[in-house]
């Protein structure tokens, strides 16, 4: 079990792209599923790209604007070559809908 899995559990897939999948997730202690989060799981084995994702997320955590999703925390799993970016969940339609 990795650090992400000790704090969150995955619910449904919200979207999928070539390099990442976004899930709705909840904290493990939120048994009634009252506060949803979104987690973007990026698959990348390139250390330089992992650092770029990490830097981008750190900027996202510092920004505070109503039109920008707030970054909550990041987990890097070097064994699985995955980055888990946990952010606030925004309920609604996709931009192109």
**CATH-assigned homologous superfamily:** Phosphorylase Kinase, domain 1
Strands of the biggest beta sheet: in what spatial order?
Answer: 1-2-3-5-4
How is the biggest beta sheet arranged?
Answer: 5 strands, antiparallel
| Topology order in helix (H) and strand (E) letters | HEEEHEE
Helix fraction by DSSP (H/I, runs of at least 4): 10-25%
Rounded to the nearest angstrom, the radius of gyration is 13 Å
In total, the number of domains comes to 1
Low-pLDDT windows of residues: none
Tally of helical segments: 2
CATH class, please? Alpha Beta
Structural class: alpha+beta
**How many beta strands in the DSSP annotation?**
5
What features would you describe in this structure?
The protein is an alpha+beta fold and 97 residues long. It has one domain (3-88): Phosphorylase Kinase, domain 1. The chain has helices at 3-7, 47-62; strands at residues 8-16, 20-27, 37-43, 71-77, 82-88. The longest helix has 16 residues, at 47-62.
Short précis:
The protein has helices spanning 3-7, 47-62; strands at 8-16, 20-27, 37-43, 71-77, 82-88. The protein is of the alpha+beta class.
